[in-house]
Design goal:
This protein has about 325 residues and is an alpha/beta fold. It has helices spanning about 20-25, 35-40, 45-55, 75-95, 110-120, 145-155, 165-175, 190-205, 205-210, 225-235, 245-255, 265-275, 290-300, 305-320, and strands at about 10-15, 60-65, 100, 100-105, 130, 160, 215-220, 255, 280.
């Protein structure tokens, strides 16, 4: 019997590329260098070799951006179904090593809710990943709430993953600097601002009041929000604001992963703010090397029981692995 003391390492935000989707977007070598593309497209020996070298027992696979959600519904719906079918077929060949999050055609929220249900009930996927904005719209807007309702009914999480900031934000915030520092738009800062803003909006939207059992995952140690929870909560409790119990709702509904943020002080802040049961190990492979993640987490000064929760125990409970 598998227990919490069984040292099984599960990495929760590990990416791949579906060849048909990559062709749809015509991604260039400049956007994704050849070695990175080779790893994204590999669902076999290279992926397993690098997992084994780093001591990772299971990856929960999710499609990298660009994703189907910004396509027109007539393209997005069949493409999401096909890629989820292909992901399921691959996982069936290595069920002890891989699980997966579904891709959703969020440009049609009702169809996305139906595809989430199909992917979970028929294909055995563990939830879904959504990449940033859908045609410039934030995920908390009412049109997308059928997806939240279905996720609650199915008791599966929705992983909110970064994508490029809105063009107006790029123009206003970053344009003077991106030529020399293009990563400023992505993991250097833009991803964090965009996704943290989405996390704040979710709490303010009332979606957690409407769906009190909804579960959301944020990567990169919560996109910085655990560090700011007290300040945001205090500011929103001042007169003139509708006190949304921000800190309470965030900690009740959100799980965070370590993907691509391997900092001891940041992790300890997250544990103190949210509790160790809300933290899940992730690498963000292949954008970040597996060894960087496992070497870091194995060296963090934590009680063995807490480290086992982060490495796999929490993921097994949340995703029912």
């Amino acid at each position: 019997m598998v227990t919490d003391d069984t040292p099984r390492v599960i990495a929760l935000e590990e990416h791949y590329w579906d060849a048909d989707v990559a062709r749809q977007f015509g991604v260039t070598d400049e956007q994704r260098p050849a070695e990175l593309r080779r790893r994204l497209e590999d669902l076999g020996a290279l992926r397993l070799k690098e997992m084994d070298e780093a001591g990772i027992d299971m990856q929960v696979l999710s499609h990298s951006s660009p994703a189907v959600q910004n396509l027109d519904p007539d393209k997005a719906i069949p493409m999401a179904r096909a890629m989820n079918d292909r992901l399921h077929e691959f996982i069936q060949g290595e069920p002890r090593r891989f699980a997966g999050f579904a891709a959703l055609p969020t440009s049609d929220p009702d169809a996305a809710a139906d595809e989430l249900e199909r992917a979970v009930v028929k294909l055995g996927l563990k939830g879904a990943m959504v990449h940033g904005l859908t045609r410039g719209r934030f995920f908390d807007e009412r049109q997308f709430w059928p997806i939240f309702e279905r996720a609650q009914t199915l008791d599966v999480p929705l992983y909110l993953h970064p994508s490029r900031p809105h063009p107006a934000v790029i123009e206003a915030y970053y344009k003077e600097y991106v030529a020399q520092n293009p990563a400023l738009l992505t993991a250097g800062w833009g991803y964090t601002v965009e996704t943290a803003t989405q996390g704040v909006r979710l709490v303010l939207s009332g979606v957690f009041d409407a769906y009190p059992r909804l579960k959301i995952i944020l990567g990169h140690l919560g996109e910085g929000l655990p560090f700011l929870l007290w300040r945001i909560d205090h500011a929103l409790s001042r007169p003139g604001n509708r006190d949304p119990r921000f800190r309470e709702q965030f900690c009740e509904h959100v799980y965070i992963t370590t993907s691509g943020n391997f900092s001891d002080p940041a992790l300890l802040c997250c544990i103190l703010e949210m509790g160790v049961d809300r933290i899940l190990f992730s690498v963000d492979w292949p954008f970040v090397p597996n060894m960087l993640g496992t070497t870091w987490i194995n060296g963090v000064s934590l009680a063995k029981a807490d480290k086992l929760k982060i490495l796999g125990g929490n993921a097994r409970r949340l995703l029912r692995i």
